[in-house]
Design goal:
The protein is of the alpha+beta class and 517 residues long. It has 2 domains: 138 residues, 2-Layer Sandwich (Beta Polymerase, domain 2), CATH 3.30.460.80; 308 residues, Orthogonal Bundle (Cytochrome-c3 Hydrogenase, chain B), CATH 1.10.645. It contains 17 helices and 15 strands. The strands form 5 sheets. It has a 5-stranded mixed beta sheet. It has a 3-stranded antiparallel beta sheet with strand order 8-9-10. It is globular.
Length: 517
């Protein structure tokens, strides 16, 4: 009984992690959400699907929950888009933007939802056009855009004024709009509007062969290419009941941990820079550059793009590569420990970090804060430790957690995770088994479902894959943890001053691209 107190007809999925899938009715949809919340479970993702190509027809709204025993994927069939499904935001607030996205993409809506504003649709397509329905093929063009005024929530009161930031920013970061309501420099409210980089990836998946889908998944968010590609491959291998070679399992973990280290190195430098400590940016940027150059030398790509492939991995660790990795780990650890001491003892940095952008553990749990941001607010969830797949079940991950919930806590978690990843990399290289790197696979079961669930550096990356009876991709939903954490940022900034926003924002470093897909 994966969901305590609820007897559902669930089928175990052939995945390396414990995962179940089942179909529910309206009552069970709501009852399951309550039961998951009451038992300490979490919402992972919510998405919709057009199944008119299936004999049953209609639409479906789907949800994935993290429960104590693993992951549960539930489907609720909707005979038409006019049939609403029960709103989940009262139980899981993070569902709100996911429900709004499903409304924009498919026209299916939650009954009683309090926020029905468009999320992905910025006027790029008419309000009666839905890009994920079967009749839409992506070739439609709408030259006459109708951009409507977005009704931001107004804060009234003496001395209150608004500051609009974005969507176009200085530098090369992706677009997102931030509307601050402030008195003086104190932030009373922040409201975000995202979706500017919506790329139609979900539609593109339906025209992509399943064996090539990992390349598209790996480009959902370029800084998490290993996590997304691994999640997609896990989903496809689950759907087709494919077992990958042992050496490939270990190499995937090696790539994932190196991806984690690269991002933590970059962000620790950027955090120093946002607190006017340019020395930190210079030093961590140098270390990250060295780290990425070894990626290029050993694996052919600085960011490990396309290294993970269905059936295993596309690149092996060449002779002598293990020594280069171990030597680099020693150098990086020595330098980062020295930099950590400087960060910890620098009064100016600590003055900016401590108590800034705090998210209390209780609020973090209520809003579903996940990943490194969640662990810095006492949300002790890490798939590498909670639901370990090979080789993590043999490595034993030490989870980094903190209760402070502020920028300082998120910095501490990054340092601790970086050191732990270096330990894991040494363990992987030292125990890397011999053998093949990739299994030869061919399309197998049709009309199948698969799921992938990987702890990326930012948090849980989830992929739900649905194949039709012809073996094509009917739906591939890629879910970035930023979906959960962007709304929390709005709360983290309240009570802080406007100049602290860049620092708070960087301490989470959420993905625009991964959110917008």
């Amino acid at each position: 009984m994966p969901i305590p107190g609820l007897n559902l007809d669930l089928q175990r999925m052939p995945a390396p992690l414990p995962m179940w899938r089942g179909e529910v009715d309206v009552d069970a949809w709501t009852n399951a959400a309550r039961a998951v919340a009451e038992s300490g479970g979490r919402l992972v993702a919510l998405w919709g699907t057009d199944r008119h190509d299936d004999a049953r027809g209609g639409f479906a709204i789907s949800v994935a929950y993290a429960v104590q025993d693993g992951l549960v994927w539930l489907d609720l069939a909707l005979v038409s888009p006019d049939v609403a499904y029960p709103d989940l935001t009262g139980i899981f607030p993070a569902a709100g933007r996911m429900q709004r996205a499903a409304a924009d993409l498919l026209g299916i809506k939650a009954d009683g939802e309090s926020d029905a504003r468009p999320w992905f649709n910025h006027g790029a397509w008419p309000r009666d056009y839905f890009p994920l329905r079967r009749e839409a093929d992506g070739s439609e063009r709408f030259p006459e855009r109708v951009v409507e005024d977005y009704p931001f929530v107004r804060v009234e009161g003496e001395g209150v004024h608004e500051i609009a930031v974005g969507p176009v920013h200085a530098g090369i970061i992706e677009p997102g709009h931030f509307r601050f309501s402030v008195v003086g420099e104190k932030v009373l409210r922040l409201e975000e509007r995202l979706g500017y980089t919506h790329k139609g990836i979900d539609q593109l998946f339906t025209r992509t062969p399943p064996l090539a889908g990992h390349k598209l998944a790996g480009r959902v968010s370029g800084d998490s290419t290993v996590a997304f590609a691994w999640s997609y491959c896990m989903a496809l291998e689950s759907a087709w009941s494919v077992a990958i070679p042992q050496r490939a399992q270990w190499l995937r973990a090696l790539f994932l941990e190196r991806e984690r280290v690269a991002n933590h190195l970059g962000d620790l430098g950027a955090l120093g820079n946002d607190a006017a400590f340019a020395f930190g940016l210079a030093q961590f940027s140098r270390l990250k550059e060295d780290w990425l150059r070894l990626h290029r030398t050993l694996f052919g790509h600085r960011y490990l793009m396309d290294a993970v492939t269905p059936g295993g991995v596309a690149v092996d660790l060449a002779t002598g590569g293990d020594a280069a990795i171990l030597t680099q780990c020693d150098v990086i650890e020595t330098e980062v420990r020295a930099l950590k001491t400087i960060y910890d003892e620098h009064a100016g940095l600590q003055d900016r970090f401590l108590t800034t952008g705090r998210v209390e553990p209780k609020l973090a749990a209520r809003l579903g804060l996940t990943g490194l941001g969640g662990r810095a607010s006492a949300q002790a969830f890490d798939l590498r430790a909670d639901q370990p797949v090979a080789p993590y079940d043999r490595l034993g991950v030490n989870m980094a957690t903190h209760r402070g919930g502020d920028v300082a806590a998120r910095v501490t978690v990054r340092f601790e995770e970086l050191f732990e990843s270096l330990r894991l990399i040494r363990g992987i290289v030292g125990a890397l088994p011999d053998g093949e790197c990739c299994a030869l696979i061919a399309p197998a079961e049709r009309g199948a479902f698969g799921a992938g669930w990987v702890e990326g550096w930012r948090g849980e990356v989830f992929v739900a894959l649905e194949l039709d009876r012809a073996g094509r991709i009917r739906r591939c939903h890629c879910h970035d943890p930023s979906w959960h954490n962007w709304p929390v940022l709005e709360h983290a900034v309240i009570g802080n001053i406007v100049p602290d926003f860049p620092l708070i924002n960087k301490s989470f470093n959420l993905s625009y691209s991964g959110h917008d897909r």
